[in-house]
């Protein structure tokens, strides 16, 4: 029984009445599961076949007694997922092709209250004109669609996740080792040192979400006067891949991507962080810096980092949406 | 140049005027450095000798030009400290003896606003009567002393840190491996599963502080109706030590300590978390559960987990202070 099926069963057990797939999809967000209504229906059919749920009327479902028993026994063995697995899974599943700029890319999803939208976009404007963002493309989703459910009175903002870089390099046969999410101190506009680090393979919470929640960033200061703290991550590549990585990155830059702030030297620590043997450290900006800037103004967002795969062609220029809101 | 010397230099550079050791000690807290005025004076003398600071009048110091240069170059190599090092260092340095109940024990320090003190103690009362606390002894410090500086309008609360268990076992030659800090879901009063985990060797922020800040606990629910979420940690001991650990733990219980919620089986996962070969998992309560309970009522505290070593004999019964406040 996978996490999604369990989450759906949990919702049905909690509601204890007939509910439809659309409502289930909305409630799933509370469990950190992002699914389209269509995918929810697919999972509901599996549950029906196993006798754990029962159809009532048009699309409505209710949990069966067998479903309740399954829920009780199954959830004891439900595992805590570690972030590194999410990174590796989505990197593998992404089919974004840098040459054609087509395919599904990894995005972070944030939900912004509608009545704070103008202020939020003002706060992000300078971030999208800075080096501390992966791309100036965003997803701007106002109503539910096949892939994303948007909670009432909110708008969904998608930003290109920095793990998209891993996915692009992986498609070229280059393995990127994601080590730490961190808060990077900026002085004189340059990376100076990490103030905080959390290892991706040792946490079930996304490090960048932790730093945003803990109010540890000062993206605004970093951009406006060159002194501040931005979200960044520390990764490693095999030394043998360096030239190829630079070549692909230069191609990425032509297509409007950026994000690598520093390359280290083979076997040499980068900003005091040691690397593995025959590896080179790289420092990559966090895709959530625009969202950190929103939170710095006191607006609360609900954010899910390294969230999902989304069609890159559906993304639009930040400026386009921003100008419309003015 | 160690972190303390650097922090003192930073304060002097920022103030840019003559300041005394008492004021420096207070400001050091902002850098997470807990030192007595006396220890600050000791460090200032080192800085004087190196020509980095200069004495002005009675106890006042100012930073020299050489001090500024040193600060600039030294802080680039200042390292981010990982929590596991703090755990191992304090476990080794603690000289608390369980038989005589004398010596320095590891404590967490929290600062509570004076005007919220009564409410805070009410919130903690049921925690100190529950299994989710290491000991019913606390430090209650209202004014600066040789070891602790108390910020204005605050009171310092010290709770026995769960790492004290590591220290006691280490004195008996038993190595404890601290793996994860976590949020432990309680059902029917029993540990059910971990909701979140962060590895101690992969984070520069204390996991339990992160969970408190992120409002992920429900200590109140866990105690009042048996369903909730408490702070806990996952550790491992070598299988060969099990009997000895149980023997020492039983001695600890006689002296008023508690905190081990579960012992696993050799080589067997405990609450789904796999252990190393020939090791046994144990689940230990977080020493900060009383502080989590305070935060759950909406009172903001400033907390430093696994903070410092303090004379156990200076600790008093929670009830004694609590009764006085009623």
From TrEMBL, chains A, B:
Residues 7-71 form the Ribonuclease R winged-helix domain. GO terms for biological process: regulation of DNA-templated transcription. Residues 80-315 form the NrpR regulatory domain. It holds the Pfam family WHD_RNase_R. It comes from the Bacteria. InterPro entries: ArsR-like_HTH, NRD, NrpR, NrpR_dom_sf, RNase_R_HTH_12, WH-like_DNA-bd_sf, WH_DNA-bd_sf. CDD domains: HTH_ARSR (cd00090). Signal peptide: none annotated. PANTHER family: GLOBAL NITROGEN REGULATOR NRPR. This is DUF128 domain-containing protein.
């Amino acid at each position: 029984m996978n996490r999604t099926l369990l989450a759906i069963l949990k919702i049905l057990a909690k509601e204890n009445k007939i509910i439809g797939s659309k409502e289930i999809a909305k409630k799933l967000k509370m469990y950190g599961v992002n699914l389209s209504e269509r995918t929810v229906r697919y999972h509901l059919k599996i549950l029906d076949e196993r006798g754990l749920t029962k159809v009532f009327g048009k699309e409505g479902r209710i949990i069966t007694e067998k479903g309740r028993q399954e829920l009780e026994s199954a959830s004891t063995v439900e595992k805590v997922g570690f972030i590194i697995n999410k990174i590796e899974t989505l990197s593998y599943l992404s089919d974004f092709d840098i040459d054609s700029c087509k395919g599904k890319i990894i995005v972070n999803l944030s939900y912004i209250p509608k009545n704070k939208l103008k202020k939020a976009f003002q706060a992000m404007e300078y971030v999208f004109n800075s080096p501390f963002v992966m791309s100036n493309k965003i997803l701007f989703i106002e109503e539910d669609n096949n892939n994303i459910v948007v909670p009432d009175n909110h708008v969904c903002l998608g930003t290109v996740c920095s793990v998209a870089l891993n996915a692009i390099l992986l498609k070229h046969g280059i393995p990127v080792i994601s080590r730490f999410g961190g808060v990077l101190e900026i002085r004189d506009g340059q990376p100076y040192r990490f103030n905080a680090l959390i290892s991706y393979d040792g946490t079930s919470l996304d490090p960048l979400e932790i730093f945003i929640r803990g109010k540890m960033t000062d993206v605004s200061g970093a951009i406006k006067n060159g002194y501040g703290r931005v979200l960044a991550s520390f990764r490693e590549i095999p030394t043998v891949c360096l030239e190829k990585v630079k070549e692909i990155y230069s191609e990425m830059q032509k297509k409007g991507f950026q994000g690598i702030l520093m390359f280290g030297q083979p076997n040499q620590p980068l900003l005091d962080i040691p690397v593995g043997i025959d590896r080179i450290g790289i420092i990559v900006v966090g895709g959530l810096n625009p969202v950190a800037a929103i939170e710095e103004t006191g607006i609360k967002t609900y954010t899910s980092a390294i969230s999902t795969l989304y069609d890159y062609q559906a993304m639009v220029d930040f400026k386009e949406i921003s100008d419309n809101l003015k």
